[in-house]
């Protein structure tokens, strides 16, 4: 019963959000003189021939992969109450550096790809690390510094692209880096589609989908099943309580931002390794900001983010068929906007309901509320700390208490 | 309660955007002309970032397509890319797949993908505005079925530079570029050369809103205004912009400081609504995308498109030029025409890079 109730409350917010968003979008579509039901039918129409239908699926998935990685990067920081707005700059800088290194070396296939991935993750992590260092040593709000670092990252990327890393000839309209040789390409998954009995699409399904799934699982395990994850969630729910129980707050900020940045470094790679093979002036921008919306939509749980990314990918694909049906593409932007807005509102409503039911049920219900605005882990997996946490979680947490505390004290002493 | 208010406000704001959209959007659809006799001309067009309603580049392309279809009969379909323009290949592929022919891509940003799409649909005729139908290696793109519709923007900008220099009392003019790309640099190069030719030693301030790779500079009037204000404060009295929708900010800055500005692409004296902004637009450098698109569709319907080549619209074909609406530069028309003749005759070669 209790479990059922918790599940109901967890699903309540997203379902409410999507229903409200659909209602508002329906009203908007009617207001511009179109039939909302037609619009929905068009959005789900993936084409007439099997080839077109698989192509539709591939387009949705290829769009969802980078969005998922972006959402994942944002969510890791979110989980501990850090607002990493710098994902945009982190992935742009990481992608151009990865493209440059990938083009400069010649290695056998898998090693080449691996090197590019490692470079991208390292650059993303370092750029996010600056934010963390500024925060723990100087108390600079990560919101401010990460926004500012976005501008610096874009500036550096432009400088590198038009200067030392330029691969395009003089006078080219679109400036790109030197293309990565074929050994550094990530193979597509169209063979897999064929094995599943689907018709071949026009374009390749990004093989990076596999990396994204692995990244999602790793993050999920890291946050739910390790001591680090417990410390991270504890810091997100209540920084003071976490510090009091011996979590090294400064160390956590640095580690979390490094992980967030490393994941951010992957965002540009599906396009880079699967399609474009170089970074250029036309490289997809803005994925870092979309990632914030996707993380919000997925309530910071990897599974939820996957769902959010697929939803955004689906809506994005729908923009073209909608225009063929005389409905402006901005309808899609409107739907995306209303969904995000409704999610924020629904999270708040659900938070209040949870609190009320907790008050009514007194000691039984877990104190999962968190603060909905920053999205502190209140997803379906937000409960564990009080439930199954004690055995595995607090034990090691307490054991490190003195060590970590001593370390941070020492550092404070040195700073002063 | 708070939540309900937020929802309501959000909904209202969104519906406001949406109703704005319809005024321009609905006209873009359906078939014009409707003559059943036509051999079913189906023209597809994919816009550059921003899509319909920019009062400039994209709208000009639409106008050309609309005129052609009105004249020749048939059907038209225009598609706007998504916000980050990552679905460009899909736009072109789907138009071709749905049987639209010719398919016109508006903007050089399609340059790196149109070749792939064109090879996939060898029976469809493609055109690309502001880019080439021939690859960097000298080979025709796709299956030789891409035609480049190019503009000698530097020639028109040269005349804008001449007009600015002749009209400047401070002996100091300025240029605001949207994004520092080679295309916009050709506007800058032409403008600076023209100003220097008309008044040797004149100061030309050059500022870009965003660096290469960051396309926000074409759609950010607020930053356009700040950048232009900086140039005016430094002493310039006429600023030429090649910054798309950010140009509105340049006009605002000119109006605020009592100086003047030069528009771009369309005759912006006609397209701008605000009378205060209108008053500062001395002239506009016209880039007749509409003529080029209409001409291409007409050629296609007559079967005279060869593909794998470029059509360059310059001063000699009146593909670029200056507007005289408002009568601000009527008195120097003679001098401007003289420079134009020297350019078309080859006596003056206008640089394309600064």
Automatic annotation (TrEMBL), chain A:
Residues 372-381 have a biased composition (Gly residues). The chain crosses the membrane at residues 7-33, 53-78, 90-107, 113-136, 143-161, 205-223, 252-273, 279-297, 304-321, 327-346. InterPro entries: ABC_transp_permease (IPR001851). Keywords: Cell membrane, Membrane, Transmembrane, Transmembrane helix. It is found in: Cell membrane. One of its GO terms (molecular function) is transmembrane transporter activity. Residues 355-416 are annotated as: Disordered. It holds the Pfam family BPD_transp_2. Residues 407-416 have a biased composition (Basic and acidic residues). GO terms for cellular component: plasma membrane. CDD domains: TM_PBP1_transp_TpRbsC_like. It is a multi-pass membrane protein. This is ABC transporter permease.
UniProtKB/TrEMBL annotation, chain B:
It is found in: Cell membrane. It comes from Modestobacter muralis. It is a lipid-anchor. This is BMP family ABC transporter substrate-binding protein. Gene3D superfamilies: 3.40.50.2300. It comes from the Bacteria. Keywords: Cell membrane, Lipoprotein, Membrane, Signal. One of its GO terms (cellular component) is plasma membrane. Its main location: membrane. The keyword Transmembrane helix does not apply. Residues 1-18 form the signal peptide. Residues 47-350 form the ABC transporter substrate-binding protein PnrA-like domain. Belongs to the BMP lipoprotein family.
């Amino acid at each position: 019963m209790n479990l059922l109730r918790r599940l109901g409350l967890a699903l309540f917010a997203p379902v409410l959000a999507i229903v409200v968003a659909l209602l508002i979008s329906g009203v908007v579509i009617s207001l511009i003189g179109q039939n909302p039901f037609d619009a929905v039918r068009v959005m789900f129409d993936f084409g007439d021939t099997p080839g077109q239908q698989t192509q539709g699926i591939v387009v949705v998935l290829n769009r969802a992969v980078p969005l998922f990685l972006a959402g994942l990067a944002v969510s890791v920081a979110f989980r501990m109450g850090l607002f990493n707005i710098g994902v945009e700059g982190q992935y742009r800088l990481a992608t151009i550096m990865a493209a440059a290194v990938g083009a400069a070396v010649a290695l056998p296939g898998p090693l080449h790809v691996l090197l590019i991935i490692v470079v991208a993750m390292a650059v993303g992590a370092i750029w996010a690390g600056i934010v963390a260092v500024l925060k723990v040593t100087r108390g600079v709000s990560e919101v401010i510094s990460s926004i500012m670092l976005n501008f610096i990252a874009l500036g550096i990327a432009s400088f590198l692209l038009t200067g030392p890393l330029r691969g395009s000839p003089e006078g080219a309209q679109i400036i790109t880096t030197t293309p990565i040789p074929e050994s550094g390409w990530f193979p597509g998954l169209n063979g897999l589609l064929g094995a599943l009995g689907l018709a071949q699409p026009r374009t390749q399904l990004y093989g990076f989908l596999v990396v994204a799934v692995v990244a999602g699982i790793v993050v999920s395990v890291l946050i739910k099943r390790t001591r680090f994850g417990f410390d991270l969630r504890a810091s997100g729910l209540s920084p003071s309580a976490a510090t009091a129980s011996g979590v090294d707050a400064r160390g956590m900020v640095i580690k979390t931002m490094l992980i967030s940045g490393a994941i951010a470094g992957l965002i540009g790679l599906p396009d880079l390794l699967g399609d474009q093979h170089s970074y250029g002036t036309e490289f997809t921008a803005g994925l870092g900001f979309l990632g914030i919306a996707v993380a919000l939509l997925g309530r910071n749980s990897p599974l939820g983010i996957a769902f959010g990314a697929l939803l955004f990918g689906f809506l994005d694909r729908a923009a073209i068929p909608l225009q063929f049906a005389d409905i402006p593409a901005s309808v899609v932007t409107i739907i995306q906007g209303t969904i995000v807005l409704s999610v924020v509102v629904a999270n708040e409503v659900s938070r209040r309901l949870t609190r009320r039911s907790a008050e009514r049920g007194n000691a039984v219900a877990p104190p999962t509320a968190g603060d909905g605005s920053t999205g502190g882990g209140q997803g379906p997996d937000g409960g564990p700390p009080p439930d199954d946490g004690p055995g595995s979680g607090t034990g090691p947490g307490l054991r490190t208490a003195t060590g970590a505390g001593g370390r941070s004290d020492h550092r404070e002493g040195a700073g002063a | 309660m708070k939540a309900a208010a937020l929802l309501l406000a959000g909904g209202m704001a969104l519906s406001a955007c949406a109703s704005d959209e319809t005024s321009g959007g609905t006209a873009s659809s359906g078939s014009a002309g409707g003559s059943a006799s036509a051999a079913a001309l189906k023209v597809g067009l994919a816009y550059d970032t921003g899509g319909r309603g920019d009062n400039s580049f994209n709208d000009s392309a639409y106008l050309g397509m609309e005129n052609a279809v009105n004249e020749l009969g048939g059907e038209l379909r225009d598609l706007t890319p998504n916000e980050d323009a990552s679905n460009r290949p899909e736009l072109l592929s789907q138009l071709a797949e749905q049987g639209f022919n010719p398919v016109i891509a508006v903007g050089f940003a399609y340059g790196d993908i149109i070749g792939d799409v064109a090879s996939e649909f060898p029976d469809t005729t493609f055109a690309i505005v502001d880019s080439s139908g021939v690859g960097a290696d000298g080979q025709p793109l796709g299956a030789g079925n891409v035609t480049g519709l190019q503009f000698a923007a530097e020639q028109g900008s040269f005349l804008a530079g001449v007009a600015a220099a002749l009209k400047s009392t401070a002996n100091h003019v300025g240029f605001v570029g949207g994004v520092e790309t080679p295309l916009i640099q050709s506007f800058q190069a032409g403008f600076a050369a023209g100003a220097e030719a008309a008044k040797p030693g004149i100061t030309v301030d050059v500022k870009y809103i965003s660096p290469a790779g960051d396309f926000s500079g074409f759609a950010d009037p607020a930053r356009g205004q700040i950048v232009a204000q900086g140039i005016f404060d430094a002493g310039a009295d006429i600023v030429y912009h090649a910054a798309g929708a950010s140009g509105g900010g340049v006009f605002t800055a000119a109006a605020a400081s009592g100086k003047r500005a030069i528009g771009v692409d369309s005759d912006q004296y006609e397209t701008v609504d605000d009378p205060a902004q209108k008053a500062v637009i001395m002239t506009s450098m016209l880039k007749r995308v509409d003529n080029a698109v209409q001409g291409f569709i007409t050629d296609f319907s007559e079967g005279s498109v060869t593909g794998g080549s470029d059509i360059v619209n310059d001063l000699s074909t009146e593909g670029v030029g200056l507007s005289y609406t408002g009568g601000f530069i009527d008195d120097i028309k003679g001098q401007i025409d003289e420079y134009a003749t020297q350019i078309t005759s080859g006596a003056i070669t206008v640089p394309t890079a600064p």
